[in-house]
Amino acid sequence: MDTPDLEIQLKTLPNLPGVYQYYDKEGTIIYVGKAKNLKKRVSSYFNKTHDSGKTRVLVKKIAEIKHIVVDTETDALLLENNLIKKYQPRYNVMLKDDKSYPWICIKKERFPRVFSTRRVIKDGSEYFGPYTSGKTVLTLLDLIKGLYSLRTCNYNLSEEKVDAGKYKVCLEYHLGNCKGPCEGLESETEYNENIKAIKEILKGNFKDSLQQFKAQMLEFANNMQFEEAQKIKEKLEVLENYQAKSTVVNPKISNVDVFAIVSDESYGYINFLQLSYGSIIRAHTLEIKKKLDETDKELLELAITEIRQRFNSKSKEIYVPFKVELGEDLKVTVPKLGDKKHILDLSLRNAKYFRMERFKQIKIVDPDRHANRIMAQMKADLRLSEEPRHIECFDNSNIQGTNPVAACVVFKNGKPSKKDYRHFNIKTVEGPDDFASMEEVVYRRYKRLLDEEQPLPQLIIIDGGKGQLSSALKSLDALHLRGEIAIIGIAKRLEELFYPNDPIPLYLDKKSETLKVIQQLRNEAHRFGIEHHRNKRSKSALNTELETIPGVGEKTVVELLKKFKSAKRVAHAKLDELEDVVGVSRAKKVYDYYHKNEVK
């Protein structure tokens, strides 16, 4: 499908957090932005006059909009940063410099330091983040410093130098902020226990630490040290609100390509995320038209080769939802949990949204195309001689053998035509006989259409198995319509379709759109029939209770029920209460009816 007009692209954007990219007519990326709500943010560029001349020029140059859906606003902010650094778009000024978001580093050394940095160095140190706010980093470091005594000096605290007494404790030791590992006053084991607890906090796993802090807070409070207790409480709040690391930036994942696929009967949609040093730097979704009913595996293998060539990817590893055959040079990983699975899920989510938006765009550009496709599909799947533009589905409703009714629902071009729905009260059948009821209803329906010279459907669907289908066929035979209209029966499980004179049912793919339309018809017929049956039962219940009272008509019944809500309450009402509602004469008739057996 060609790129749709901007107006159509705007209408189909999701109301989700993400990053949008504007391209000019040459296909060059000219602006990257983040949004809490993609649809609202992007639309705002086009539906208001901008004061900034730069923004007005930008809007005029936009030819195509692409977007990447993410989980949170924080992820959107980080992804925006990655993409601007990578592509240096002409109209992005703020983030083009080398400034990047801060990380918290736990240095690989004896008695590790914990500090903030904007540079990730591959020296074996551990990095947590990135954080979208420097304030968050300072708060966390302050929290860690307040809870754990860590060194801040940059001395090389090797065992030999410490034992040789090369260093002396500084002011931090005397203030109680450091326990003096430089003079051997703190063991390496004790220090590393604190580092282990700090790592858990930074990962978001701080259950043990929370318990420890709460105990400290209670101890301060019990000792009347309320200011100290308040400080711990504030730090606890920061800790409880702290979120674990982002999906879109993860230093543990190096240079990999991520692929996910969703497909339907006609197309496959493959999303590609490219990660460089743990950051998403590219996202693209490829739409492939199926030619020979290819499997998802075949489509994905084809797409991976095509996309990697197009973007000149050199990554040696890919993440995919299932095993694919791509030669021995490429490492194929199928993530099952953890960070790798999260990034694969993000890719799958973007593929799904791309497919949804394509469908919406098709409906706007060519409203009939969707219906035409489904009709052609149904004709092929159900082995019909013509497209089922007009379908009618019948369902019987008799619960516990009472008030037998039937429903006929009508779909035109794959959509409900509610003005053509019809209810039937069973007239010629005594008792609960589904087969005879179906025969009567089908006969009455098509006798009337023939008499009134109304158009007949191309397909009749009978809710029921072989027995129901045989009953409906008798009526078509009586009206000389057999062969004129295609007719099938659906078994209760909705997986078996029965045809006249064919003992072997047809099974449809559970994912097929044909089955979805048939399910929708069956559900509508069932709902419509039950609704009528319920109304009829309610009415008959009224008749048995109140309308059987001599001298009491429908109007009186309605007034009484409006006031008392049920016939039972009417029966227990006092005479003066009834008189207030329906007057003296009628109230006496109702009251006497319910109290006639009482001893006077």
Helix content: 40-55%
Strand % is 15-25%
Structural class: alpha+beta
Mean pLDDT: 80
Organism: Tamlana crocina
Subcellular location: Cytoplasm
Subunit structure: Interacts with UvrB in an incision complex.
Function: The UvrABC repair system catalyzes the recognition and processing of DNA lesions. UvrC both incises the 5' and 3' sides of the lesion. The N-terminal half is responsible for the 3' incision and the C-terminal half is responsible for the 5' incision.
Brief synopsis:
The protein has 600 residues and is of the alpha+beta class. It is 45% helix and 19% strand.
Description:
With about 600 residues, this protein is α+β, with helices and mostly antiparallel strands. It is about 45% helix and about 20% strand. It is built from 20 helices and 19 strands. The strands form four sheets. Strands 12, 13, 14, 15, 16, 17, 18 and 19 form an eight-stranded mixed sheet that branches. Strands 9-8-7-10-11 form a five-stranded mixed sheet. α9 (about 205-220) runs antiparallel to α10 (about 225-240), α12 crosses α13 (about 365-380) and α14 (about 435-450) packs parallel to α15 (about 465-480). It is extended. The termini are far apart. This is UvrABC system protein C. InterPro entries: GIY-YIG_endonuc, GIY-YIG_endonuc_sf, GIY-YIG_UvrC_Cho, RuvA_2-like, UVR_dom, UVR_dom_sf, UvrABC_protein_C, UvrC. Belongs to the UvrC family. It is found in: Cytoplasm.
Sequence-ordered SSE layout with sheet pairings:
Elements: H1 6-11, E1 18-23, E2 29-35, H2 38-46, H3 53-61, E3 64-69, H4 73-87, E4 103-106, E5 114-117, E6 126-128, H5 134-147, H6 159-163, H7 171-174, H8 188-203, H9 207-222, H10 226-241, E7 256-263, E8 267-276, E9 279-289, H11 296-310, E10 317-319, E11 331-333, H12 338-365, H13 367-381, E12 390-399, E13 402-412, E14 415-416, E15 422-425, H14 434-451, E16 459-463, H15 466-478, E17 486-490, E18 496-499, E19 502-507, H16 513-545, H17 554-564, H18 567-572, H19 575-582, H20 584-595
Parallel strand pairs: 7-10, 10-11, 12-16, 16-17
Antiparallel strand pairs: 1-2, 1-3, 4-5, 4-6, 7-8, 8-9, 12-13, 13-14, 13-15, 17-18, 18-19
Helix pairs in contact: 9-10, 12-13, 14-15, 19-20
